Amino acid sequence: MSTFRSRVWSRLDKACRLLPIVVNTVLVLSITAEVSYLVLVEAPREPEQQKSEWSAVWKSVHLLCQYYMLGNITWNASLFLKTSPSIRGVFLGGEGVGQGWRYCYTCETHTPPRCSHCYDCNVCVLRRDHHCVFFGQCVGFRNYRYFLSCLLFMWAGLLYAVVMNAEVFIVILKEGVTLHSVMLLIVPWIMLVSGQVTARAFAFAFIADTCVIGFLLVASFLFFHVGLMLRGQTTREWYSNRRPYSLGLLGNVRECLGQRWYLCWLSPLIPSPLPGDGIHFQVTGPLEPAGSTASL
To answer: What are the pLDDT digits (tens) for 214-237?
Structure first.
């Protein structure tokens, strides 16, 4: 009986870990499909403009930009998931064990500075930043570039989708700010179930709302992590108000994005070797948490 329960629990736990990835994939593809429909069918709205030669060029440029961003999102997300930031397969012994090293009783090994154990991944992660619930994996030394690039293109793509969906908000509010229009924008599910709107109106309102909420959420994550990168911090070090490994503005960017930091954000296919090994870090400040009066 206990074996059966453990199997059920293991499958349920695996399904729960995969659920955010599935939901994010569905939302990204749905937003892409809706924006493609707006570009190909709804825009430009004037009949004489739709028949012009400029209309075809306009649509081609929009679709090219849209699928360039989608390709970068999916490819960076894929490489993020494939690139393990853990200590598995990494030699940690030798004479390098020293200040800042700790012993992990779960992994039964000494771990270097900035490395910590993740109980979701059940392994220690090199230069661990945090465990991303949206991807079901830790953000660490080897996959930080792909995580940040994915956030960048998600932010750009959602900004683009919000601008393209501005027409949807205009159509919904064309009769003024009424209870019907406000309810459609805030709780489109209730309006659909109650039969107040059609499935088509619900789909446009729901995706438009998702674009706005997603844009604000991704923007907060992106700007927070860009700030951490520029300061040479991880999320854990930010919590404790420490900056012991800051190498200056350019050095911190190169530490996270690699030698070709100025190009690697254009495409995940551009090689950009990281300057370090994720084990040894140059100490440039106090390792202990700063006091409340310390300057940032």
So the answer is: 999 999 999 999 999 999 999 989
Give the chain's radius of gyration (CA, Å).
24
Alpha-carbon span 256 to 148, nearest angstrom: 9
Q: Rounded to an integer, what distance in angstroms lies between the CA atom of residue 211 and that of residue 27?
A: 9
In one-letter notation, the amino acid at residue 1 is M
pLDDT digits (tens, 9 = 90+) for 254-266: 999 999 999 999 9
Please state the pTM of the whole predicted model: 0.86
Report the catalytic residues: 132
